[in-house]
Amino acid sequence: MRRRSTFVACSLLVALVTMLGQNPEYRQDPKWSAPDDAARKVNPLATRPGATAGGKKLFLRNCAECHGNGSGIEKKHSADFLLPVVQDQSDGTIFWKITNGNTDRGMPSFSKLPEMERWQLVLYLRTLKPVPSPR
Amino acid sequence: MRFFFLLLPVLLASMVSFAQENPYFVTYDHHMEEPGNLDLEVSATTDVPRAGQKYYFAPWMEFEYGVTARWTTELYIEGQTTYGDSTVFTGWRLENRFRPMKREHWINPVLYLEYENLNEASRIQKEIVGGGSDVTSPNSELRNTSAHELETKLILSSDFHDWNVAENFIVEKNLSKGEGFEFGYAAGFYHQLATLASGEKCRLCRENFLAGVEFYGGLGSTLNFSGRNTGNYVAPVVSWLVSDNATLRFSPGFGLTHESSPVLFRFGYSYEIQGIGSSLSQLFGRKR
After folding, report:
1. Across the interface, do A114 and B17 touch by the CB < 8 Å criterion?
2. Is residue A53 packed enough to be buried (19+ CB in 10 Å), middle (13-18) or exposed (0-12)?
3. Structural domain includes residue B17
4. In this predicted structure, what is the pLDDT of residue A105?
5. How many CA atoms lie within 13 A of A94 on its CB side?
C-alpha cells in the first residue's frame, strides 16, 4: 500500500514538473505562417535518421538559448517544441520559420546555417516527444 | 554594486553562446547579432610596408550587442603602434545597423550609420574610403588632427545555395573639415566547408570552418571621384569555430594599387555571451 502511494506521488510529481516545465501560455503568432509551397516541402533527410545527432548538436548551439534544451524549459515567449501546436506543423513550415525567423517577436533568421543543417534541426525537433496541452 | 562585480564572472561563464561569426573583416552581411547577446571581439590589422614606410600594428576592440532581431549596435575602441615611432590611442566609433525587412528575401538590405571620433593616426582600416589612410606621416603629427566623421553604408546581402554574397556601398563625411563626401566599397562571398553537421563534438571538422574572399577599397570623393590613387585589396578570409564560444578569423589582404600596402594581415578573436541583456535586467530587478 505504502509502495503504491509512493508510486502515485512520484507520478504526480513528474507530471507536475513536466507541466510546469512546459510553456502552455505559448501562442502562435497568427501573422507568422509559411507560404503554401514552403509548407509542402519535404525534409530531404527524412530517410537519414543518422543525421539527427548532428541536428541535436545544432539545436544546442543555436536554439536551446531561448527554447530550452528539449526538456520543455524555455523563455516565456519562445515556442515550446513539446506542444502539439508546434509538433502538428509540417516539416516545411518549421524549416521556413527557422529560415526566416519572426523578427518582430525576437526570433532571428537562421538562414546563415546551410540548408541541410536547417533540415537537420527539423529532424531533431521531431524526436522531441509532444505532451498534450493542459486544459 | 560589489555584488554585481562578484557575480559577473559567474554570469559570463554560464552564458556562453555557440554562434559562429562570419569570416569578413570589412564587408557586412545581413545577419544581425541575436537579441540580448553581446559579442566581444579583439582584432588587429598589420601590414608589410613599402620602402620608406614603417611597420605598424593596429588593434581594436568591438562590443557588439543585439538590441532587437533587426537592430544591432556596436562600440569600437582602437589604437596603433608604429615601429620606431610611438603607440597612440586613435579613437572610438559607434555604429548601428538596421534591417528594414522582416523576412528573408533574395536580396536583404541593411542600413548602417556610424559616428567616428578618430584622429588621423587611425590605421585599423575597418573600411577604406577616399584615398585611404596616411601611413607615412609621424604619429605626433597625425594624432593632433582629429576627425569627427559620419559614415553610412547600404548593405545588400543574399544567402544563395549555402553561399553568402554581400555588397556594401560606403559614403563618409568628415564633419571637421571640408573633404567633400568620400566613397568606398566592400564586397565578398563565403561558404561553410561542410553543410551537414556531424553528430560528434569536434573542433577540426570542416563544418567549423567558413572560407571566402572579400574585396574592398576607396572610390575617391566628390572632389575627386575615381578608383585611382586609392587603396584597393583582394583578401581571402577564413573563420574557425575554435571552441564552443569563440571564433578565430584570419585574412591576408593583397594590395591591387600602388596606394595599397603590398599585404595587409588581419586577425581576430571573438567571444559571444548570450542573453546578457535579460540577465542584467533581471539582476537589477526586472521580471523575466
Report:
1. no
2. middle
3. yes
4. 86
5. 22
Can you tell me the distance from the alpha carbon of B265 to that of B248, in angstroms, rounded to the nearest whole number?
14
Q: Which domains does chain A have, with CATH numbers?
A: 2-125 (1.10.760)
CATH number at residue B143: 2.40.160.40
B274 and A109: CB-CB below 8 Å?
Answer: no
CB contact under 8 A, B103 and A53: no
Closest listed residue to residue B103, CA positions, set B69, B55, B129: B69
Residue B127 has pLDDT above 80, yes or no: yes
**Among all residues of chain B, which has the CA nearest to that of A103?**
B69
Residue B66 lies in a domain: yes
- Give CA–CA dist B169/B27, Å, rounded: 10
Q: pLDDT (tens digit, 9 = 90+) per residue, B15-57?
A: 444 456 899 999 999 999 988 889 999 999 999 888 888 899 9
Q: A67 phi and psi, to 5 degrees?
A: -95, 0
Q: H-type helices in chain B, by residue range? A: 2-13, 139-142, 276-283
**What is the rounded distance in angstroms from the CA atom of residue B129 to the CA atom of residue B185?**
8
Which one-letter DSSP state was computed for residue A131? -
Q: Is residue B288 in some structural domain?
A: no
Number of domains within chain B? 1
DSSP A49: G
Kindly give, in sequence order, each residue whose CB lies less than 8 Å from that of residue A96, ignoring residues fewer than 6 positions away: A34, A35, A38, A39, A41
* C-alpha span between A19 and A84 (Å, rounded): 13
Cell of B33: 547579432
Is B127 part of any domain?
Answer: yes
Q: What letter represents residue B6's amino acid?
A: L
CA distance B95 to B115: 6
- Number of neighbouring beta carbons within 10 Å of residue B198: 15
| Selection from A93, A87, A83 nearest residue A26 by Cα | A83
Inter-CA distances, B109 with A36, B23, B101, B139, Å? 25, 19, 8, 38
CA closest to A117 among chain B residues? B196
Closest-CA residue to A63 (of A27, A16, A18, A97): A97
Q: Counting one residue from A and one from B, how many pairs have CB atoms under 8 Å apart?
A: 80
Q: A35 touching B, CB under 8 A?
A: no
| Cross-chain CB nearest to A54 (options B34, B102, B196) | B196
Contact B207, B198 (CB under 8 A): yes
Average pLDDT, chain B: 88
User: Does A65 sit within 8 Å of B199, measured CB to CB?
Assistant: no
Residue B41: which domain range? 2-283
pTM: 0.85
